Amino acid sequence: QVQPAESGGGLVQAGGSLRLSCAASGWIISGSNMGWYRQAPGKEREFVASISWRSGYTNYADSVKGRFTISVDNAKKTVYLQMNSLKPEDTAIYYCNQAGYWGQGTQVTVSS
């Protein structure tokens, strides 16, 4: 069963940084993307960023452009989300999505 595994969440002050990791499981479908999503309390899950395994093409939500960077290490089958200039509104559970399969999520809390 495909289940990506997230790590790297934690508590950080506003303006700080965190780096999340997502280790892919099983076969990686050629041409597929790996995506990061987040869900804050009482809100729907929303798209954060995605990257193509093959081309490295990236896409970001407007709310994180210029602050977050998604990258991939193909040898390690791992995708990273570098989050800088964090804001309290970035507080959420961050999920990784691999070809439609969700990880269990990692909590990110940004204090003001």
Notable characteristics:
112 residues; 7-stranded mixed sheet; single chain; 0% helix; globular; 11 strands; 4-stranded antiparallel sheet; mainly beta
Helices and strands, with pairings:
Elements lengths: L4 E3 L2 E4 L4 E6 L9 E7 L6 E7 L5 E3 L7 E6 L4 E6 L8 E7 L2 E2 L3 E6 L1
Parallel strand pairs: 2-11
Antiparallel strand pairs: 1-3, 3-8, 4-5, 4-9, 5-6, 7-8, 9-10, 9-11
Describe this structure in words.
The chain is mainly β and 112 residues long. It is 0% helix and 51% strand. The protein has no helices and 11 strands. The strands form 2 sheets. Strands 2, 4, 5, 6, 9, 10 and 11 form a 7-stranded mixed β-sheet that branches. A 4-stranded antiparallel β-sheet has the order 1-3-8-7, with no helix packed on it. Strand 9 (92-98) and strand 10 form a beta hairpin. The radius of gyration is 13 Å and the shape is globular. 30% of the residues are buried. The mean pLDDT is 94.
How is this structure best summarized?
With 112 residues, the chain is mainly β. It has strands spanning 5-7, 10-13, 18-23, 33-39, 46-52, 58-60, 68-73, 78-83, 92-98, 101-102, 106-111. Strands 2, 4, 5, 6, 9, 10 and 11 form a seven-stranded mixed β-sheet that branches. Strands 1-3-8-7 form a four-stranded antiparallel β-sheet, with no helix packed on it.
Helix content: under 10%
The secondary-structure element order is EEEEEEEEEEE
Strand % is over 45%
> What number is the mean pLDDT?
94
Low-confidence stretches: none
User: How many distinct helices?
Assistant: 0
Distance between the ends: 39 Å
Q: Mind summarizing the main beta sheet?
A: 7 strands, mixed
What is the count of β-strands? 11
The dominant shape is globular
Radius of gyration: 13 Å
Query: What structural category do the secondary elements indicate?
Result: mainly beta
